[in-house]
Design brief:
heterodimer, A: four-stranded mixed sheet, 6 helices, B: alpha/beta, Rossmann fold, four-stranded parallel sheet, binds iron/sulfur cluster, binds FE2/S2 (inorganic) cluster
């Protein structure tokens, strides 16, 4: 068999949100045809999930009868839509001149190595995301890094593991919900 | 009658019906305005802008492909301003394109390269950042190289408007815009049904077949292996185009010689197994009609359609004939019947097919296709790949002395060549079904009502007092329309022939690329290829599959009878729903060639 079978188990949270999305679609007034609801439905998806997961696009594709390739096209066209989940802890590393000269690049390497992700990516557990920013306005204390609202200054690579460990403790993931779902299409959606 | 519009193009007086575009009007007086994103059978999209012209009274340069003519219009297609603009546009596209023409497989047959040469681009002024993407070779049929993509959108539109598959779409924006399957999945994971029409429509080498010529060369030169090959009907009337010959010229005999020279020990004819398919399929149809089985029955020889059914219309899977396609039947026989007869170990047979089709590559890899315990067909070459191999070997194809196929799987009747053209499988099946149901011989073998290049055809044939209703369809958007109307009860048939590609296999995704001013789906080219196949049929002594003496022999010696136990085990199969579940395009007007 090919590996096209993308049947994933959906957690309770996703199922709940898909049901809400379903209600939203059912409650929307169809003006011309169902397809014209797409923009509004994508907005609602982002509001519900915080981003637009492939599972939701597949769900919408079946609900509105729009091929998923075109939904993906629209979702990636508008900057407003986000296709990857926001990390719980967003790391912003400054790559302004001062920070760069002071060794910011080595800090970035260390972050990538520890988290095994690149810039603009999010760890599989959704805890960390690495972003690059330009000048956080405290060049005298470079290199500078921000994690959500906390600022870290005069960073050296050796300090990175301890900082990450702190947030790992804070952000212990909640217990996984049990999956129950009805398969529709390649992905899954909640019962109709 | 339409209102007529008078205008002047490059000082030539032109009169065309209202509603035509400037491009059409120019074409009608022998002026070819360059174009990259326009195709007469696809919606206009104005993505490339190379078709700009000057129109008196307009400030900017409008695009000819979507500007309608109006009374008294003055058009200049070749002014200094226009030439300059086109040149700049081509240059900007080239600036974002890899510079590897010499090692590109579309070298000398690339619409972009052609424009660059015609517009005298001698230097590239806008050297800047160039897009970088990985090649997607996940699919056994289609290779995607987004770096060579001009974003003309023809693949997106053919996949949507003609095939109804919508595997591809534009994604992202600006410099990062790319053409990709949903969610950035690769081609293999997407709903792509491997038809390869996008490879014919792509102006560059951004979409091509997955080339296996190296693998075939390696096996041809392996002393342990016996290389056996089969050739599909539609290949022989198109392969000549790869060597500059007219479309439709029958090159069967030369192809056989060339294959022997390449090192194939045995050369069989897929037309033999086309006759065999008719024996099994006609038998199955009669069973379904007389025993109240599932109807309509759909033909199963087009693997793009089969995969489409698995993704998009699994509710019709039981309607598909259980017969394997001719390629797979031949593959099965080579490694069972032929191996036994000659004492060859099936493990040491390297079985290759030459097909007009990219989807055949996927079909050959289906795990259920292994009658002998080994894969029925080991490698599939498209017509284009065979042309390449013949050129690599330095064989002067057009000067070859012809030769004939090997026995015992090389003989075919007139019912077989027409498998390669829309309506042909139906006609072949009707010839056999009619005679076996009525026990009388047909007065006229030509079922002209099922011929022609229309997208959907219908016919009724009276057999033994029952009106047998049949339909013939190509292009899966057309098929989606037909299936929708069958479900709505607006249409009903006993037997439906489905070919994925426009015109049938003659228009297959593995056929030679259009060259010069011919387009993919060019009526004149497809018409000639079709005529080539009908001529082969007309010239055969025997024109009905059930009268093929070799077929009778294979049943006697090995298979038993049509639909019998051995035949069933080796020559039949079943299909299953496949994910992701596809959403077809909305039903539109029927797409026709010409
Ligand atoms: S091979 Fe056919 S189905 Fe696949 S992307 Fe190309 S046109 Fe679409
Ligand atoms: S892949 Fe080819 S056909 Fe498709 S948009 Fe790019 S250049 Fe055009
Ligand atoms: S051909 Fe007219 S814009 Fe591309």
């Amino acid at each position: 068999m090919t590996k096209t079978a993308k049947t994933k188990e959906l957690d309770k949270d996703t199922q709940k949100k898909l049901l809400q999305l379903n209600d939203f679609i059912a409650g929307s007034k169809v003006l011309k045809d169902k397809q014209s609801l797409l923009m509004g439905v994508l907005h609602q998806t982002q509001t519900l999930f915080g981003y637009i997961p492939a599972t939701a696009m597949d769900f919408i594709s079946h609900k509105l009868g729009v091929p998923s390739a075109h939904i993906y096209g629209m979702a990636t066209f508008y900057n407003y839509f986000q296709l990857t989940p926001k990390a719980r802890y967003q790391i912003y590393l400054c790559k302004g001149t001062a920070c760069y000269v002071a060794g910011g690049a080595r800090v970035l390497d260390k972050l990538k190595e520890e988290l095994r992700i690149g810039v603009d990516e999010v760890t599989a557990d959704g805890l960390f995301g690495i972003n690059i920013t330009r000048c956080l306005g405290c060049c005298g204390l470079s290199p500078v890094m921000q994690v959500n609202d906390d600022i870290y200054v005069r960073l050296v690579p050796e300090k990175v593991p301890a900082i990450l460990a702190k947030y790992r403790r804070l952000g212990q993931p909640k217990k996984k919900a049990k999956a129950t779902a009805v398969a529709v299409g390649g992905f899954e959606q909640p019962g109709k | 009658m339409n209102k007529q519009i008078n205008l002047r193009i490059d000082n030539i007086n032109v009169t065309v019906p209202e509603g035509q575009t400037v491009m059409q009007a120019a074409d009608s007086v022998g002026i070819h305005i360059p174009r990259l994103c326009f195709h007469p059978k696809l919606s206009a999209m104005t993505a490339c802008r190379v078709c700009v012209v000057e129109i008196a009274g307009r400030r900017n340069l409008p695009t000819a492909c979507n500007t309608e003519v109006s009374e008294g219009m003055e058009v200049k297609t070749n002014s200094a301003v226009v030439r300059r603009a086109r040149r700049d546009i081509v240059e900007l596209i080239l600036d974002n394109h890899p510079r590897d023409c010499q090692i590109c497989e579309r070298n000398n047959n690339c619409e972009l390269q052609e424009l660059a040469v015609v517009f005298n681009l001698d230097k590239l002024a806008y050297e800047g950042e160039r897009k970088k993407y990985a090649i997607d070779d996940s699919s056994p049929s289609i290779k995607r190289n987004p770096e060579k993509c001009l974003l003309c959108g023809k693949c997106v539109r053919v996949c949507s408007e003609i095939q109804g598959v919508n595997a591809l779409s534009y994604a992202h924006r600006g410099f990062r815009t790319t053409v990709t399957p949903a969610f950035g999945l690769n081609q293999q994971e997407s709903v792509c049904i491997n038809c390869g029409q996008c490879t014919l429509f792509c102006p560059t080498a951004a979409l091509t077949e997955r080339d296996v010529t190296e693998q075939v060369w390696a096996n041809l030169q392996d002393p342990e292996k016996t290389a056996v090959v089969q050739v599909a009907p539609a290949v022989r009337v198109a392969i000549g185009e790869g060597f500059g010959l007219e479309p439709g010229r029958d090159m069967t005999a030369e192809t056989v010689t060339a294959l022997r020279r390449l090192g194939f020990k045995v050369v069989f004819d897929t037309q033999f197994s086309a006759d065999l398919t008719i024996m099994e399929e006609a038998h199955e149809l009669i069973q379904r009609i007389t025993k109240k089985g599932k109807l309509p029955m759909f033909t199963s020889c087009s693997p793009g359609w089969v995969k489409y059914c698995e993704h998009f219309h699994p509710e019709f899977l039981e309607n598909i004939s259980t017969c394997k396609s001719p390629q797979q039947m031949m593959g099965a026989l080579i490694k069972t019947y032929y191996a036994k007869k000659t004492g060859l170990d099936p493990a040491k047979i390297y079985s290759v097919s030459v097909m007009p089709c990219t989807a055949k590559k996927f079909e050959a890899g289906r795990t259920e296709m292994n009658a002998s315990g080994y894969q029925d067909v080991d490698a599939v070459l498209t017509t284009r790949e065979l042309v390449k191999m013949i050129k690599q070997a330095g064989i002067k194809f057009t000067e070859l002395k012809g030769s004939s196929f090997d026995e015992p799987l090389g003989e075919s009747t007139g019912a077989a060549p027409i498998f390669g053209v829309t309506g042909g499988v139906m006609e072949a099946a009707l010839r056999t079904a009619y005679e076996s149901l009525t026990g009388t011989s047909l007065p006229n073998l030509d079922f002209t009502s099922v011929r022609g290049l229309a997208g959907i055809k219908e016919a009724g044939v009276e057999i033994n007092g029952t009106q047998v209703k049949v339909a013939i369809v190509y292009g899966l958007a057309n098929l989606h329309k037909l299936l929708t109307e069958i479900k709505e009860g607006k249409r009903s048939y006993h037997f439906v022939e489905v070919m994925t590609c426009p015109g049938g296999c003659i228009g297959g995704g593995g056929q030679p690329y259009p060259k010069g001013v011919t387009e993919p789906m060019d009526f004149a080219v497809y018409q000639k290829r079709a005529q080539g196949l009908y001529a082969i049929d007309a010239n055969k002594q025997i024109r009905k599959s059930h009268e093929n003496p070799q077929i009778k022999k294979v049943y006697d010696e090995f298979l038993g009878h049509p639909g019998g136990e051995t035949a069933h085990k080796l020559l039949h199969t079943h299909y299953h729903p496949r994910t992701p579940k596809g959403i077809a395009s909305k039903v539109k007007d029927t797409v026709n060639i010409g």
